[in-house]
Amino acid sequence: MVVRAMPSRIHLDPTPLEALLGRFGGRLVSKASATGNATSGAHVVGLAAIASPWPEALVPLSRAEYVHHAANAVTAGATIIVAERLVARLGDVPAWVHPDPSLVIAALLLEARAEDQSEPAGEGCEIHPTAVIYPRVRIGARVHVGAYAVIGAPGFGFVAGPSGLVHVPQYGGVVLEDDVWIGSCSTVDAGTLGPTRVRHGAKLDAHVHVGHNADVGEHAVLCAQVGLAGSVHVGRGAMLGGQAGVADHVHIGDGAKVAAKAGVIGHVPASAVVAGYPAVGHAKWLRGLAATYRATTRRAPRRRTPT
pTM of the full predicted structure? Predict the structure, then answer.
């Protein structure tokens, strides 16, 4: 069985874009348009991720590294909502500029309807009866899901609203591709607009957490108690030692190795070996430890021998 790549579509009642501007504020811009209203007349019928747009969907552009998807999103017929700080990077791409796009998306998600594209698990799967599989989870062939694992629970996404933190509904679901292993008590959170994905042959030990919108590469290995924050990308064949933690939106390259208990707060190049907190090259980390121990030894006072 091959699981479908298409994420669950998130639908809204068809609404003119101008009506959404009237409700939420902001402005329409396009450097290619003398009037600044290149997206005028558009309608919004749903929500999508910037990397997987579809016609008349509203897609948020929240980080600079996703700007390269903008032109493709507009070509696909989607409308981009973007923060002021990223407008200069868009070039001639039209967009809805808003002071807080994440708050707009959160409000619309509360009104949205999401398709349930769950499928029966593929052939040869072993799913423990105490595991919890939420809607919008797609499971390939020969997948193992251990006892008390939770797949597809709402991700930990909140935005600051006028009355405090607002939970953002997570309708993107989860895709577990063929030959994935999910250990006991592990959790894979649902994505927000597109799926959290664990790719072919990846292996997760017990008590591993994969945050919403993360992407675990083919044949990657995550040892016990590894924690991935939201939108982390783990490359093909990467290995993370026990209790390693990875900050949100970090990319770990193909074949990289992260030592046990490391704290990764920046991108890790392909084939690199890192350790420590914050994680640095393994050899550098060892030299730093050695220097620290030498300095500590020199400063240590001598013990007096009792008479």
Answer: 0.85
